[in-house]
Amino acid sequence: MFVDEVKIYIESGKGGNGCASFRREKYLPNGGPDGGDGGKGGDVIFATDSSLNTLSDFRNRKMYRAESGRDGSGKNCSGRKGDDLVIHVPVGTIIREAESRLVISDMAKEGEEEVLLRGGKGGKGNQHYATSTMQIPKYAQQGQEGKGLWVILELKVIADVGLLGYPNAGKSTFLARVSNAKPKIANYPFTTLSPNLGVVDLSYGKSLVIADIPGLIDGAAEGVGLGHEFLKHLERTRVLIHIVDTAGTDGRDPVSDIENINRELALYSQELAALPQVIAANKTDLPDSEIFMDEVTAYCQEKGYALFPISAATGKGIEALLHHVVKLRDQMDPEPIVFEREYFIDEPRLEEEEGDGILVEKLSEALYRISGAPIDKMLGYTNLESEKGFDFFQKFLRDRHVIKRLEEMGISEGDTVEVADIAFEYYP
């Protein structure tokens, strides 16, 4: 089953906690601190895999988590790093932040790898906090939390040429004629229910990758029918071959078909509508095509479209069409079209300086709360059960003007202040 869009949750690993330990050996009853550091959490890495051409592997699994780092231990033993999680996706997969749908990364090249979420840093063991005045530090640093994110994976096929046309215009027959692709061919609407890719090897050493996009209908740009599900696969192509049924099968009018589909393109994307477009007047082997060919020819001359009468069934006129398309392709940038990054993941860093970012809230008449990344970081390496640790905690709040802000908000003696999951009574 072809799947070109899925929503998944990804999360990097938590850093392991540092260890608070002291050396205890025979003849060394009062050894110094020897707590090891916690291991770094695993990263979430996306990698392209040319053997994949659909996102169907993600249909039944929505949660992807890297391994957390191991905690440090005594004797200066550091915890093991958590294993990275490598997620393999097809070439051409765009990763978007789920809520905003902004582009985080475009995996447009074969063999590409990108670290999307970095694992949390491991906490430092108590050996790092020994000083001349504090020789037996009883606290160690907690590991940094991993980061989680809901993302949308969206596959946009990578091809030189996109085939346009109404259902039954002959796109699948054309692709089967010129390439190694084997699309299903039948006489009913929406025969092609997923994009088909074919490689065309020409006699003079050139090749083309062609994408047969499922037939469009009026209103596709607004999502009518299969709408955006297929139009998005044209966005990486450089040239469009617009295949038109000049035999008027099922009462179709070729000129109206060209205008209707081009209107859908423009409504969906002006960039897409501006791509070079070649009109392939198909089914010219049928007698009824003579009725419409003069009208199609006059229309193409007026609009400036290159016109090639062809027959996908017999091969008539196809070589000249492909030769012209290769020349157009070669005049354009050979690199695949890549969508620019729009969403930047804010990775937390343990080494950032504390400062702004401390939130002081008055929850009720006698209840206040202090929160923010600097507070969480400080609590990670402060042992509030020790006298020195508690003194450091209060000095931290004074130095960052938190006490002053509480007083300005009207805090009174005996009021409660919540910090993380700890509650304190305030005494000035």
From TrEMBL:
EC number: 3.6.5.-
Required co-factors: Mg(2+)
Location within or outside the cell: Cytoplasm
GO CC field: cytoplasm
SUPFAM superfamilies registered for this protein in UniProt: Obg GTP-binding protein C-terminal domain, Obg GTP-binding protein N-terminal domain, P-loop containing nucleoside triphosphate hydrolases
Protein name: GTPase Obg
Enzyme class: hydrolase
Signal peptide region: none
Subunit structure: Monomer.
InterPro entries membership: G_OBG, GTP-bd, GTP-bd_Obg/CgtA, GTP-bd_prot_GTP1/OBG_C_sf, GTP1-OBG_CS, GTP1_OBG_dom, GTP1_OBG_dom_sf, OBG_GTPase
MF terms in GO: GTP binding; GTPase activity; magnesium ion binding
Biological source species: Bianquea renquensis
Annotated OBG-type G domain residues: 159-330
UniProt: Mg(2+) binding residues: 172, 192
Principal cellular location given in the protein's record: cytoplasm
The OCT domain, residue ranges: 350-428
Gene for this chain: obgE
Domain Obg: residue ranges: 1-158
Known role: An essential GTPase which binds GTP, GDP and possibly (p)ppGpp with moderate affinity, with high nucleotide exchange rates and a fairly low GTP hydrolysis rate. Plays a role in control of the cell cycle, stress response, ribosome biogenesis and in those bacteria that undergo differentiation, in morphogenesis control.
Residue numbers binding GTP: 165-172, 190-194, 212-215, 282-285, 311-313
GO-annotated biological processes: ribosome biogenesis
Keywords carried by this UniProt record: Cytoplasm, GTP-binding, Hydrolase, Magnesium, Metal-binding, Nucleotide-binding
Pfam families the record matches: DUF1967, GTP1_OBG, MMR_HSR1
Protein family: Belongs to the TRAFAC class OBG-HflX-like GTPase superfamily. OBG GTPase family.
